[in-house]
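S1.2 Input.
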Amino acid sequence: MSLLKMKVTNGAINAVLFIVVIILCLLAGEALIRTFNLQTGAPGWPQENARFVPELKKNVYPHLQNLTKSTSEYNYQISTNDNGFRDVHDFEKKKGVYRVVGIGSSAMFGNTVNVDKTYLSVLGEKLNAETINLGLGGSGFGEIKFILQEYGLQYDPDLLIIDASQGSFYASYLFEKKSVQPGKKSLYLKAYEQSKLLSFLYWRIKTTPLGFSMINFFGLNRHAQNSNAFDIDLLSNKNTEAVTISKKAVFKNIQEIKEIADDNNVPVVFIFIPAPHHLNQDQLDKIIQEYNLDPTTFDISVPPQFYKAVAEKLSIPFFDPTEALKMHPDSKNLQWKYDGHFNENGNAIYAALLAEFLRDNNIVDNKEQNS
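S1.3 Output.
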């Protein structure tokens, strides 16, 4: 055998051995994670609890009991009811109780904080009211409308609060494009859902500087990449097909939500959840630099201005605390650096501003509330 052939053969053998060792290490890691239940703190969702809801076009996760989610930034627990919501109340309302039903996305759900620290729970304390949390992560206005009709009205609300964010546009677009049947999943997503090890590693490194960069570099979070591309078009005032579909869907569903609330004599308030770049100029500058955007045409006020215009047209009270939060002494420490959601402090300050808005606009009156 020639020297060249021997080198090629040895190289091939070493490559195969390397792959085998990697596979064995992954299998050993998977066994270790499962045996000692080390994945408990990973923020992924347990697939054994998953239930696909055709009308929502996505999974919900009912019957969770103190599921711990933990990263380098936060640690919190989640419990859900029979319908997958982070709430424990019965549909029947006790006499004399003033009940606020909140419907929205991950901010309403309270990602990264315990349920008693969500802005909706803190709001209830400030208003002496009972709050019902019907938030589900990733929900657009199509999902919100269904949740209101299917669940929200059964709670006999005295006030309905709907949260809206920049992300609500992309979520509403996805809802319009999704099938009522579960879509095909990528090989990576299937592996992530089935492997406790991959879930454990992904969430352990995601909220670290190096891990955050690696995930973006290798494109492991395709949803975030697609969402970012959509948001850039939205904030650059580009009327792409996706942006146009989204805006039409947002207006149509908000209009129908208002009609449903009016038909049931329930006052409704829309509230805006600002993203980190709405509050932090450094975050905005980073985005502009990373995507090589023109700061003269990149307009982060597009989402709140759109919601404000719709709210005025439909006579809906609209709460946008962006400027007040920007002026707060702790404005740069209200949201997690990598996750982006409100931390406990951010939720508390947001709730205080919202309570003030509701009182100043005579939407609530504490003298009539007795929970």
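S1.4 Remarks. The longest helix spans residues 3-35.
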